[in-house]
């Protein structure tokens, strides 16, 4: 895996006023609504009740992930299924894309990362999501747009990924961040996966600490300071979570801070299902 280095790329986030202006421009972005919550009802119902005008709904469980199995609860999607969903929403190679969810950007970040991984070069996440859009007094609608005819064909490989062996090695030689809540990292609770704990050597880095009190991402300088405090010192960085969803939120924050990292898509759901893989508990990397 190539070393993870700092980047001068444009921000992967777009503020509410920036999106409003883009939608009023001569080249509006494709809007993707990716609302989802672990263990909750599908986001399609929330989308139907109200969404940004012109937004298309994309289902995380069915279109942004393959079926659960040995590779974890949310394996990387079949490119054909993923591509069909994007084309139906009007995604093209040369048109910007903005993704959003209810607010924390957890599922929106998954879509952002997948689009980048699949080769799309102009994707951003609405900072603060639908909550920030509503708070600004901007309109929502229950009118659903007709299916479109995009031309985007995913070409996987645009961003680095790790397998279980790579994650284990990076925990020893680089910086492996665990994006789950602290109590799951410490092994105090495990509500979803086969075993509690974390990958030995991984550092706890809950995604909630990427956000300010208003639900928006902290400034790039604040995020850079956060990750430096966690050990980002030029070493290669990798990120995992429960099933590769909230880890994308961490990757979004890292990119906002000018850092790049690899995703372990199988994450703890894959790691913990293999009894040969060790599990550390407690507050230290182990």
Automatic annotation (TrEMBL):
Residue stretches making up the Rhodanese domain: 25-142, 170-280
SMART domains recorded: RHOD (SM00450)
Region (Disordered): 191-218
Membrane-traversing stretches: none
KW Repeat (keyword) present: yes
Any Pfam family hit: Rhodanese
Keywords associated with the record: Repeat, Transferase
SUPFAM superfamilies hit by this protein: Rhodanese/Cell cycle control phosphatase
Tree of life domain: Bacteria
Gene Ontology molecular function: any one: transferase activity
Alphabetized InterPro entries for the sequence: Rhodanese-like_dom, Rhodanese-like_dom_sf, Thiosulphate_STrfase_CS, TST/MPST-like
Entries under PANTHER family matching the protein: SULFURTRANSFERASE (PTHR11364:SF27), THIOSULFATE SULFERTANSFERASE (PTHR11364)
Name used for this protein in its record: Sulfurtransferase
Organism: Kitasatospora paranensis
